Every structure is written in structure tokens, then in C-alpha cells.
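User: Predict the structure for this protein chain, please.
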Amino acid sequence: MKTIIKNSLLVLLFISGTILLQSQRPADATATSIEIKTSAECTMCKTRLEKALNLTKGVVESNLDLKTRIVTVKYLPNKITPAKIRDIISRTGYDADEVKARPGAYKRLPECCRKNGMSGGSCEGK
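Assistant: Here is the predicted structure, written as C-alpha cells:
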């Protein structure tokens, strides 16, 4: 009898804990989107930029349109800010609206991924 009561209490505790954890979800966990003009040039840029953004806590997804050079970022505003998103893009080597690319990161980009880099030749992956 004691074993049945003990097991019942454990199951009840487990269920209560699960319910409690689910109820502590942030009220503003709804994702929002932002569009940011970048200096990205090619598909290698697209891959590099989307990977950096998608690995960032608070970013739900990102998509760079190479024709317009605009990256659309879906993010959780309670986890990350638009300024931080622009900073991530800058640290990856690209301009993000008015935020210029970090010089060191920009220098590490392949030649074709630099501003007007495609005018001097082709880029692998384009």
C-alpha cells in the first residue's frame, strides 16, 4: 500500500512540475520581424549571414534576399533587440543599415563577398 501511495505521489509531482514549467512561458514570446539592408553580395554571403543569425539566441529564422540585399529576421523581442541583430551582422563582416561592418570581420571575408566584389570576377557558389 505504501508503494502505491509513494508512486502516486511521484507521478503527481511530475505532472505538477510539467504544468508549472509550461505555464512560466514569457507572455511576450511572440516573434516579430525586422528587415535590415546589408552589404551582402553572393550566395556565400547568404549562407554565412543566415548561419550567424540562426545560431543567435532569440533569432527564430532569417532569410537574405540577394536581389535587394535585405535580410528579414524573425526574432523574439524578449530575447534579442534589433540593435543586437545589427551588431551580429556587423561582426559577421557586413553592413547592417547604418551600422558598418567590423573592419576585422570584413577583411576576413572572401574577395567576392566584399562590397562590389562581384564586379572583379565570379564567386564560387553564386
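The CA atoms of residues 51 and 67 lie 19 Å apart.
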